[in-house]
Amino acid sequence: MTTRFEIIVGSMLGATEYVADAIEEKLAAIGYQSAIHLTPNLNDLEHDAIWLVCTSTHGAGDLPDNIQAFAEQLPDAELDQQPYLVIGLGDSSYDTFCEGGKQMHQLLHQAGGQPLADPHYVDVLAHPIPEEEALSWFEHSLQQPKVRARLSGPGVLV
């Protein structure tokens, strides 16, 4: 059981940073601790926390520059059922829609991580303020049995 979230951000233009900030604010309001990692490194993350990856897609389906080194660490990692959630941001007019989020989910899962919910892919064409959609999904995810089973502490999950 945990009271902590590690928010892992992949961003080129800043939208996923806004998502991370909104989620961090919500977590603080309900009594949970979190840390945002803008240049994530596997060695800096607490393994007793729930990891939340928020990433966009750049170029032709690539991960943002700031999360690439973290992604490269994952194939050699042994995550031993590390609980995680993924929020991907993308533009559905591209055939690589949310490829960054899909890649991160695949890498985490292949390294032995345990997804607590299906990844959530936010289409910025349908949701021009993506943090609102992402926060709504995140609040809903906090109510799911797999997530609730991992949480402890004073948080009121609404």
TrEMBL record:
Its cofactor is FMN. Keywords: Flavoprotein, FMN. One of its GO terms (molecular function) is flavin adenine dinucleotide binding. One of its GO terms (cellular component) is cytosol. Pfam families: Flavodoxin_1. It comes from the Bacteria. This is Protein MioC like protein. InterPro entries: Flavodoxin/NO_synth (IPR008254), Flavoprotein-like_sf (IPR029039). The lineage of its organism: Bacteria, Pseudomonadati, Pseudomonadota, Gammaproteobacteria, Alteromonadales. Residues 5-142 form the Flavodoxin-like domain.
